[in-house]
Amino acid sequence: MPLPTIEWEGGVNGRVRLIDQTLLPNELKYVYCDDTKSIWHAIKTLMVRGAPAIGIAGAMGVVLGVKEIQAKDADAFLKELKRVTIYLGSSRPTAVNLFWGLARMERVAQENKDNSVQEIKEILLQEAIKIENEDKAICRQIGENGAGLIKDNNGVLTHCNAGGLATADYGTALAVMFKAKEQGKRFKVFADETRPLLQGSRLTAWELMQAGIDVTLICDNMAAHVMKQGKVQCVIVGADRIAANGDTANKIGTYGVSILAKEHGIPFYVAAPVSTFDLSIKSGNDIPIEERSPEEVTNGFGKRTAPEGVKVFNPAFDVTPAKNIAAIITEKGIIKNPSVENIQRVLGNHVS
Ligand code: MRU
After folding, report:
1. What does DSSP assign to residue 291?
2. Which of 94, 138, 161, 293 to mutate to test the pocket of ligand 1 (most atoms within 8 A of CB)?
3. Which CATH homologous superfamily contains domain 143-347?
């Protein structure tokens, strides 16, 4: 049984329990969030991370936020709720799942505003739990839809962590690998370590080893060499936001991997739920890219590795153009050669 990344404990006055991913793989520890401030902090500091998991954390954060609302009528309640969603949305800008989760919670509150405040709180809790349960099913469907892309004896390269830890459980890119393994396929995975926060080595390598999948850790700058040696037959990564034309934001370094894959004639796949699509933006140029603190680069994991006072640029994501992507694997099916038309054909009437 996979470990639950994030869960609600108790009733409307309950709390969120999540795995503190900053401590993995050395320590498996849960943290508890009782209020919006603590879940905002957990998202910001990457205790909980990965686009779908952030979406769930945001939805549960709303339930924590409404615990504190004293409003007597629905209109006052909705106003306060807006304050909560704006606050939670300020934690991280790139993964659209956060804003999707917050908007869904607001929509449900609005649709139920004829109920008492207490009833709306209860409905919001049920909605957050529903979002988490849906994500579990979606991840399994992504695995099911994508597993055929991995062939026997393939080498598969992945970047960052799009595993169970980045979702309710089971993952997106890793779901494809988990499913291929369940189908009895033999393949090897190369996990980029993913500078500067090492999600690839700390989380992906850990998850794949636990699943009994043959994984080899490489530094990010080794991917070209490994591809040239003919060890990689496909790349599968996750996504944080996919624009209407298929341009895809994912962890910094993903764009470079896509160029390397193109140069070596290797198909580059993205695995993501429909909630990661932002059809309100035309292209990747409109995706906000989070910049994080210089210390993540100069003082990674407690050791200073750069001269004091050096200038640092630390974008957390980059955008892979749709032309570098062979297909996007979603729960609704595989979108080959992503483009406005091909995305709309598979997604239908999805509302961002
Ligand atoms: O900064 P992070 O660790 O939240 O970045 C995560 C990624 O880039 C993942 O690849 C992406 O969110 C997909 S998770 C299924």
Report:
1. B
2. 161
3. Translation initiation factor eif-2b; domain 2 (3.40.50.10470)
